[in-house]
């Protein structure tokens, strides 16, 4: 890619149009040659990127990068000022975690057109956006974090809404007053009840997507409300901070994401086992759960309830 086109693409998430390539000095035959031999890839009709090897990225990061490309390509294919990136597409641009949303479909809001629905990989929403709901970010016109969050919550599942809401609160991306103001505007929205229930349930203490999903699972399975990030000590001092603690059942639940042991270090594994042994020595039950367990909510809830029962039997016997 020549420097002129690279400067254009760098401002658009790596995406450039056929018109921009022609304007940067490429001929139609040169464009076709680069698409044919794989130096360039087509993102959507008339919108391209330079090929890059993405195999080193974890699957979820690769999906987010590809969605960002789709967003830039969709916007670049439209007349400037005619659309605002919104809903979960805006959350992705704001680097807010998302879950269980369609990353193959770009979300745009258009106030100057009555067009709605999906077409060519883009879902068009019609709506009026106030000036405080729209910002410029990464060379895109996008809805604010607060507006993007409530739009996503109104159209997604409770679980998806909580995942993003927890992250927004955890990273302090929106002042409380602003978030309350935006939530109040959803009173008569079709998805308003989900917005209010998800935001009411959200917590800044959930530290990952997995922990947020596990919170929702436990809530929907009727388990007691746990303490988040409880701290434990013994006679030797600080043991650690745990993900979930049920004090009335003397049970700890830990969520093990993929990153915890990725270095393959035996030292890390030994330290984690020693930490767990010290917790058990305090008379606590410890349940460890993984991403796989989230796919089986009934079984996972049963494991936690079984730990409750074991704790109760142990203390009655003692």
Description:
The protein is an alpha+beta fold and 318 residues long. It folds into two domains: 83-204, no CATH class; 211-317, VSR Endonuclease (Endonuclease, Chain A). It is 45% helix and 20% strand. It has helices at residues 3-10, 18-23, 28-36, 59-76, 87-93, 145-155, 158-170, 176-184, 192-201, 209-220, 266-281, 291-294, 297-317; strands at residues 15-17, 40-44, 47-50, 84-85, 106-110, 117-119, 122-126, 134-137, 140-143, 227-234, 237-246, 251-255, 285-289. The strands form four sheets. A four-stranded mixed β-sheet has the order 4-5-7-6. A four-stranded mixed β-sheet has the order 10-11-12-13. Strand 2 and strand 3 form a beta hairpin. The model has no long low-confidence stretch (mean pLDDT 93).
Helix content: 40-55%
**Tally of alpha and pi helices:** 13
Radius of gyration from the CA trace? 24 Å
Arithmetic mean of pLDDT: 93
Question: Any idea how many domains?
Answer: 2
Strand content: 15-25%
**Strand order, biggest sheet?**
4-5-7-6
Q: What characteristic shape results from the CA principal axes?
A: elongated
Element-by-element helix/strand order? HEHHEEHEHEEEEEHHHHHEEEHEHH
Question: Which oligomeric state applies?
Answer: single chain
């Amino acid at each position: 890619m020549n420097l002129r086109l690279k400067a254009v693409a760098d401002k658009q998430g790596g995406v450039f149009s056929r018109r921009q390539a022609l304007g940067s000095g490429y001929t139609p035959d040169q464009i076709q040659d680069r698409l044919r031999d794989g130096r360039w890839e087509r993102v959507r009709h008339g919108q391209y990127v330079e090929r890059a090897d993405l195999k080193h990225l974890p699957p979820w990061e690769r999906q987010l990068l590809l969605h960002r490309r789709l967003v830039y390509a969709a916007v670049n294919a439209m007349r400037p000022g005619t659309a605002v990136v919104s809903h979960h597409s805006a959350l992705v641009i704001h680097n807010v975690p998302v879950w269980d949303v369609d990353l193959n479909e770009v979300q745009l809001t258009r106030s100057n057109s009555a067009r709605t629905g999906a077409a060519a990989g883009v879902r068009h929403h019609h709506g009026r956006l106030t000036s405080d709901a729209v910002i410029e970010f990464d060379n895109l016109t996008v809805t604010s974090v607060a507006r993007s969050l409530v739009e996503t919550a109104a159209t997604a599942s409770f679980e998806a809404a909580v995942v993003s809401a927890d992250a927004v609160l955890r990273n302090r991306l929106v002042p409380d007053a602003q978030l309350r103001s935006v939530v109040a505007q959803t009173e008569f929205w079709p998805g308003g009840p989900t917005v209010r229930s998800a935001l009411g349930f959200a917590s800044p203490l959930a530290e990952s997507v997995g922990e947020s999903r596990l919170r929702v699972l436990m809530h929907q399975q009727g388990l007691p409300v746990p303490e988040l990030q409880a701290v434990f000590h013994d006679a030797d001092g600080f043991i650690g901070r745990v993900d979930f603690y049920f004090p009335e059942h003397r049970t700890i639940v830990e969520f093990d994401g993929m990153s915890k042991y990725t270095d393959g270090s035996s030292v890390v594994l030994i330290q984690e086992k020693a930490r767990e042994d010290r917790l058990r020595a305090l008379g606590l039950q410890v349940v460890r759960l993984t991403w796989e367990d989230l796919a089986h909510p009934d079984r996972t809830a049963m494991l936690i309830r079984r730990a409750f029962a074991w704790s109760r039997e142990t203390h009655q016997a003692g």
